[in-house]
């Protein structure tokens, strides 16, 4: 509601006020700052000559000045090891089969890549007597407790294909026509 009221007062007599501003002869210029007057003085030849003149007294004093500069010894800042790892992680090469191009080549010990995880889950599913949790833990440098949890809670997908003779086929002879 307040916006409507202010808009009415703002737009009141807008055209007449605009014509009045346009019809003025020349807008009054803003007052000049005193530094603008100094620019005109700086262009005078006397000031230029004074600036370019050499002062022998100052030159002699300048020749007596000798500056010797030495770099301070370099100190290594101890950041508490925030940016650098405190110990190097041991890495192992991945054990990949035909999917080698899809995955990383080196993995930290105690971890596995996605392709390795799918491979070991599939191996355990197909041959659980050979691929036991102990063998998987030794093979991939994993903790036995984590391997047991992995085998318990993650199961790879199973693809089932139905034989063709059990599928019900739609015959075109028995179709009903819509009228």
Automatic annotation (TrEMBL):
Query: Which residue stretches belong to region Disordered?
Result: 19-41
Q: Which organism is it from?
A: Leiothrix lutea (Red-billed leiothrix)
| Subunit organization | Binds calmodulin. Interacts with NDUFAF3.
One of the Pfam families matching this protein, by short name = UPF0240
**InterPro entries registered for this protein in UniProt:** NDUFAF4
- Which Gene Ontology terms of cellular component type are present? mitochondrion
Q: What is this protein called?
A: NADH dehydrogenase [ubiquinone] 1 alpha subcomplex assembly factor 4
Similarity comment: Belongs to the NDUFAF4 family.
Q: Name one GO biological process term.
A: mitochondrial respiratory chain complex I assembly
């Amino acid at each position: 509601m307040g916006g409507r009221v202010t808009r009415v007062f703002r737009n009141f007599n807008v055209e007449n006020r605009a014509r009045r501003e346009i019809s003025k002869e020349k807008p009054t210029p803003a007052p000049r700052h005193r530094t603008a007057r100094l620019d005109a003085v700086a262009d005078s030849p006397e000031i230029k000559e004074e600036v370019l003149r050499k002062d022998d007294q100052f030159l002699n004093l300048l020749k007596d000045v000798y500056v010797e500069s030495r770099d301070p010894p370099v100190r290594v800042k101890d950041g508490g090891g925030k940016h650098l790892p405190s110990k190097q992680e041991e890495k192992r090469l991945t054990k990949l089969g035909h999917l080698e191009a899809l995955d990383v080549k080196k993995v930290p010990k105690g971890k596995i890549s996605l392709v390795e995880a799918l491979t070991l889950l599939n191996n355990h599913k197909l041959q659980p007597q050979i691929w036991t949790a102990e063998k998987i833990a030794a093979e991939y440098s994993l903790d036995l407790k984590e391997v047991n949890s992995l085998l318990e809670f993650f199961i790879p997908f199973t693809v089932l294909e139905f034989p063709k003779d059990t599928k019900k086929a739609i015959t075109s002879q028995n179709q009903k026509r819509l009228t």
